Amino acid sequence: MGRCTNHVEVAAVDCGANPVVLSVESKTNPTSCESFDGAITVTASGGETPYQYSINGGTFQSSGAFSGLGGGTFTITLQDSKGCDTQTEVTLAIQNSDLAATYHSTADSECLSNNGKIMVNATGSHSPFQFKIGSGSFSTDSVFSELGEGIYRITVKDSEGCSLTVNATVAHGNTGISWTGNIKAIIDANCAVSGCHVSGGQSPNFSSFANVQKNASEIKARTASRSMPPDGRSITQEQINLISCWVTDGAVNN
Q1: Residue at 15 is within a domain
Q2: Helix (H, G, I), strand (E, B) or coil at 195
Q3: pLDDT score at 99
Q4: Rg (CA), the chain
Q5: Which CATH number is 59's domain given?
Q6: Angstrom distance (rounded) from CA 129 to CA 114
Q7: Three-class SS of residue 220?
Q8: What's this model's pTM, rounded to 2 decimal places?
Protein backbone atom coordinates (compact mmCIF):
# COMPACT_ATOMS: atom_id res chain seq x y z
CA MET A 1 0.00 0.00 0.00
CA GLY A 2 1.33 3.44 -0.89
CA ARG A 3 2.45 5.93 1.72
CA CYS A 4 1.99 9.69 2.07
CA THR A 5 5.37 10.75 3.53
CA ASN A 6 6.03 12.89 0.46
CA HIS A 7 2.76 14.74 0.74
CA VAL A 8 3.16 18.44 1.49
CA GLU A 9 0.68 19.96 3.89
CA VAL A 10 -0.98 23.17 2.70
CA ALA A 11 -1.24 25.90 5.29
CA ALA A 12 -4.79 26.74 6.28
CA VAL A 13 -6.11 30.15 5.30
CA ASP A 14 -7.12 32.41 8.19
CA CYS A 15 -10.07 34.30 6.73
CA GLY A 16 -10.56 36.18 9.99
CA ALA A 17 -7.16 37.89 9.79
CA ASN A 18 -8.23 40.09 6.86
CA PRO A 19 -11.95 39.50 6.35
CA VAL A 20 -13.71 40.31 3.11
CA VAL A 21 -16.35 43.04 3.38
CA LEU A 22 -19.33 43.35 1.04
CA SER A 23 -21.21 46.64 0.66
CA VAL A 24 -24.31 47.54 -1.36
CA GLU A 25 -23.45 50.48 -3.62
CA SER A 26 -26.84 50.88 -5.30
CA LYS A 27 -30.09 49.12 -6.12
CA THR A 28 -32.94 49.81 -8.55
CA ASN A 29 -36.42 48.39 -7.99
CA PRO A 30 -38.24 46.82 -10.97
CA THR A 31 -40.81 49.14 -12.51
CA SER A 32 -43.71 46.66 -12.31
CA CYS A 33 -44.71 43.13 -11.40
CA GLU A 34 -44.03 41.87 -14.89
CA SER A 35 -40.76 43.76 -15.32
CA PHE A 36 -37.28 42.39 -14.85
CA ASP A 37 -35.42 45.67 -14.98
CA GLY A 38 -34.22 45.77 -11.39
CA ALA A 39 -30.52 46.00 -10.62
CA ILE A 40 -28.07 45.61 -7.72
CA THR A 41 -24.46 46.79 -7.55
CA VAL A 42 -22.13 45.77 -4.72
CA THR A 43 -18.52 46.58 -3.91
CA ALA A 44 -15.86 44.67 -2.01
CA SER A 45 -12.93 45.39 0.28
CA GLY A 46 -10.58 43.43 2.50
CA GLY A 47 -9.36 39.92 1.81
CA GLU A 48 -7.19 39.23 -1.22
CA THR A 49 -8.02 40.40 -4.73
CA PRO A 50 -9.25 39.51 -7.26
CA TYR A 51 -12.83 39.23 -6.06
CA GLN A 52 -15.69 37.19 -7.46
CA TYR A 53 -19.41 37.74 -6.99
CA SER A 54 -22.44 35.46 -7.18
CA ILE A 55 -26.17 36.04 -6.87
CA ASN A 56 -28.47 33.41 -5.34
CA GLY A 57 -25.82 30.71 -5.56
CA GLY A 58 -25.26 31.16 -9.28
CA THR A 59 -22.01 31.19 -11.24
CA PHE A 60 -19.36 33.55 -9.93
CA GLN A 61 -18.43 36.60 -12.01
CA SER A 62 -15.79 39.30 -11.77
CA SER A 63 -18.32 42.16 -11.68
CA GLY A 64 -20.40 43.18 -8.67
CA ALA A 65 -23.22 44.45 -10.92
CA PHE A 66 -26.37 42.37 -11.42
CA SER A 67 -29.25 43.40 -13.70
CA GLY A 68 -32.44 41.95 -15.19
CA LEU A 69 -33.93 41.35 -11.74
CA GLY A 70 -37.54 41.19 -10.64
CA GLY A 71 -38.88 41.90 -7.19
CA GLY A 72 -37.78 39.93 -4.16
CA THR A 73 -34.85 39.19 -1.90
CA PHE A 74 -31.47 38.30 -3.35
CA THR A 75 -28.40 36.83 -1.67
CA ILE A 76 -25.10 38.23 -2.96
CA THR A 77 -21.94 36.26 -2.21
CA LEU A 78 -18.44 37.73 -2.31
CA GLN A 79 -15.38 35.46 -2.55
CA ASP A 80 -11.73 36.50 -2.62
CA SER A 81 -8.74 34.78 -4.24
CA LYS A 82 -8.11 32.73 -1.07
CA GLY A 83 -11.63 31.33 -1.02
CA CYS A 84 -12.77 33.48 1.91
CA ASP A 85 -16.35 34.66 1.49
CA THR A 86 -19.22 36.64 2.94
CA GLN A 87 -22.85 37.27 2.02
CA THR A 88 -25.49 39.98 2.17
CA GLU A 89 -29.19 40.08 1.33
CA VAL A 90 -30.71 42.81 -0.82
CA THR A 91 -34.46 43.30 -1.31
CA LEU A 92 -35.99 44.87 -4.42
CA ALA A 93 -39.53 46.13 -3.86
CA ILE A 94 -42.33 45.52 -6.36
CA GLN A 95 -43.87 48.79 -7.51
CA ASN A 96 -47.64 49.22 -7.01
CA SER A 97 -48.12 45.85 -5.35
CA ASP A 98 -48.71 44.76 -1.76
CA LEU A 99 -47.60 41.17 -2.40
CA ALA A 100 -45.23 40.07 0.38
CA ALA A 101 -43.91 36.81 1.74
CA THR A 102 -42.09 35.52 4.79
CA TYR A 103 -40.84 32.06 5.67
CA HIS A 104 -40.03 29.82 8.58
CA SER A 105 -37.60 26.93 8.28
CA THR A 106 -36.51 23.94 10.32
CA ALA A 107 -32.90 22.79 10.23
CA ASP A 108 -31.66 19.70 8.42
CA SER A 109 -30.52 17.36 11.19
CA GLU A 110 -29.91 14.31 8.99
CA CYS A 111 -26.46 13.58 7.59
CA LEU A 112 -26.99 10.96 4.88
CA SER A 113 -30.52 12.13 4.05
CA ASN A 114 -32.38 15.42 4.38
CA ASN A 115 -35.18 16.49 6.72
CA GLY A 116 -35.08 20.29 6.49
CA LYS A 117 -38.31 22.15 5.82
CA ILE A 118 -39.41 25.58 4.55
CA MET A 119 -42.90 26.97 5.23
CA VAL A 120 -43.86 30.11 3.29
CA ASN A 121 -46.53 32.65 4.26
CA ALA A 122 -47.78 35.02 1.54
CA THR A 123 -49.91 38.13 2.02
CA GLY A 124 -51.50 40.62 -0.34
CA SER A 125 -54.76 41.74 -1.91
CA HIS A 126 -54.84 39.16 -4.70
CA SER A 127 -55.11 35.66 -3.33
CA PRO A 128 -54.97 32.71 -3.89
CA PHE A 129 -51.19 32.43 -4.00
CA GLN A 130 -48.97 29.88 -5.67
CA PHE A 131 -45.48 28.79 -4.74
CA LYS A 132 -42.49 27.08 -6.32
CA ILE A 133 -38.97 26.21 -5.25
CA GLY A 134 -36.06 26.76 -7.61
CA SER A 135 -36.99 25.90 -11.19
CA GLY A 136 -39.92 23.71 -10.15
CA SER A 137 -43.59 24.15 -11.03
CA PHE A 138 -46.06 26.40 -9.24
CA SER A 139 -48.59 24.85 -6.88
CA THR A 140 -50.74 25.90 -3.95
CA ASP A 141 -48.46 24.00 -1.55
CA SER A 142 -46.48 26.47 0.55
CA VAL A 143 -44.46 23.83 2.43
CA PHE A 144 -41.27 22.30 1.03
CA SER A 145 -39.85 19.24 2.78
CA GLU A 146 -36.87 16.86 2.71
CA LEU A 147 -34.40 19.68 2.13
CA GLY A 148 -30.70 19.74 2.87
CA GLU A 149 -28.97 22.70 4.45
CA GLY A 150 -28.53 25.63 2.07
CA ILE A 151 -30.25 28.60 0.48
CA TYR A 152 -33.37 28.00 -1.60
CA ARG A 153 -35.03 30.40 -4.00
CA ILE A 154 -38.80 30.43 -3.41
CA THR A 155 -41.08 32.23 -5.88
CA VAL A 156 -44.53 33.41 -4.80
CA LYS A 157 -47.19 34.41 -7.34
CA ASP A 158 -50.60 36.01 -6.75
CA SER A 159 -53.81 35.68 -8.79
CA GLU A 160 -52.89 38.74 -10.85
CA GLY A 161 -49.64 37.12 -12.02
CA CYS A 162 -47.45 39.34 -9.87
CA SER A 163 -44.52 37.41 -8.37
CA LEU A 164 -41.61 37.89 -6.00
CA THR A 165 -38.75 35.76 -4.80
CA VAL A 166 -37.58 34.90 -1.31
CA ASN A 167 -34.24 33.35 -0.43
CA ALA A 168 -35.00 30.86 2.31
CA THR A 169 -32.21 29.33 4.39
CA VAL A 170 -32.26 25.83 5.81
CA ALA A 171 -29.70 25.70 8.60
CA HIS A 172 -27.47 22.82 9.62
CA GLY A 173 -28.94 20.98 12.56
CA ASN A 174 -26.88 18.75 14.83
CA THR A 175 -26.74 15.38 13.09
CA GLY A 176 -25.40 13.40 16.03
CA ILE A 177 -22.56 11.85 14.03
CA SER A 178 -20.17 10.31 16.53
CA TRP A 179 -16.37 10.41 16.71
CA THR A 180 -16.20 7.00 18.38
CA GLY A 181 -19.01 5.38 16.38
CA ASN A 182 -18.45 6.88 12.91
CA ILE A 183 -15.33 8.95 12.36
CA LYS A 184 -12.46 7.35 14.30
CA ALA A 185 -12.56 4.18 12.21
CA ILE A 186 -12.34 6.21 8.97
CA ILE A 187 -9.32 8.17 10.25
CA ASP A 188 -7.63 5.06 11.66
CA ALA A 189 -8.02 3.13 8.40
CA ASN A 190 -7.00 5.89 6.00
CA CYS A 191 -4.93 8.56 7.75
CA ALA A 192 -3.47 7.34 11.04
CA VAL A 193 -1.52 4.54 9.29
CA SER A 194 2.14 3.54 9.09
CA GLY A 195 4.19 6.14 7.23
CA CYS A 196 1.45 8.70 7.34
CA HIS A 197 -0.24 10.64 10.19
CA VAL A 198 1.13 8.60 13.11
CA SER A 199 3.95 8.96 15.60
CA GLY A 200 7.23 8.93 13.68
CA GLY A 201 5.40 9.64 10.42
CA GLN A 202 3.97 12.77 8.91
CA SER A 203 2.82 15.55 11.22
CA PRO A 204 0.21 15.99 12.59
CA ASN A 205 -0.28 12.68 14.33
CA PHE A 206 -3.91 11.69 13.79
CA SER A 207 -3.64 8.88 16.35
CA SER A 208 -4.35 11.72 18.78
CA PHE A 209 -7.93 12.96 18.91
CA ALA A 210 -6.70 16.42 19.91
CA ASN A 211 -4.77 16.70 16.64
CA VAL A 212 -7.73 15.50 14.60
CA GLN A 213 -9.97 18.04 16.31
CA LYS A 214 -7.44 20.84 15.78
CA ASN A 215 -7.24 20.04 12.06
CA ALA A 216 -10.92 19.14 11.61
CA SER A 217 -11.76 21.94 9.17
CA GLU A 218 -8.83 21.07 6.92
CA ILE A 219 -9.72 17.37 7.04
CA LYS A 220 -13.27 18.24 5.99
CA ALA A 221 -12.05 20.42 3.10
CA ARG A 222 -9.43 17.97 1.86
CA THR A 223 -11.63 14.89 2.02
CA ALA A 224 -14.36 16.81 0.17
CA SER A 225 -11.89 17.69 -2.60
CA ARG A 226 -10.55 14.10 -2.51
CA SER A 227 -7.00 15.32 -1.92
CA MET A 228 -7.05 13.34 1.32
CA PRO A 229 -6.06 10.57 1.66
CA PRO A 230 -3.50 11.26 -1.10
CA ASP A 231 -1.65 7.97 -1.49
CA GLY A 232 -3.97 5.74 -3.47
CA ARG A 233 -6.46 4.99 -0.74
CA SER A 234 -10.00 6.09 -1.39
CA ILE A 235 -12.91 6.82 0.88
CA THR A 236 -16.53 6.65 -0.14
CA GLN A 237 -18.82 9.62 -0.61
CA GLU A 238 -20.77 8.42 2.42
CA GLN A 239 -17.61 8.56 4.54
CA ILE A 240 -16.85 12.06 3.21
CA ASN A 241 -20.37 13.14 4.16
CA LEU A 242 -20.00 11.68 7.65
CA ILE A 243 -16.76 13.58 8.20
CA SER A 244 -18.37 16.80 6.95
CA CYS A 245 -21.35 16.40 9.28
CA TRP A 246 -19.18 15.61 12.30
CA VAL A 247 -16.94 18.63 11.68
CA THR A 248 -19.89 20.97 11.08
CA ASP A 249 -21.50 19.66 14.28
CA GLY A 250 -18.44 20.93 16.12
CA ALA A 251 -15.94 18.05 15.88
CA VAL A 252 -16.71 16.95 19.42
CA ASN A 253 -15.33 13.91 21.21
CA ASN A 254 -18.62 12.03 21.37
Answers
A1: no
A2: coil
A3: 93
A4: 22
A5: 2.60.40.1080
A6: 27
A7: helix
A8: 0.77
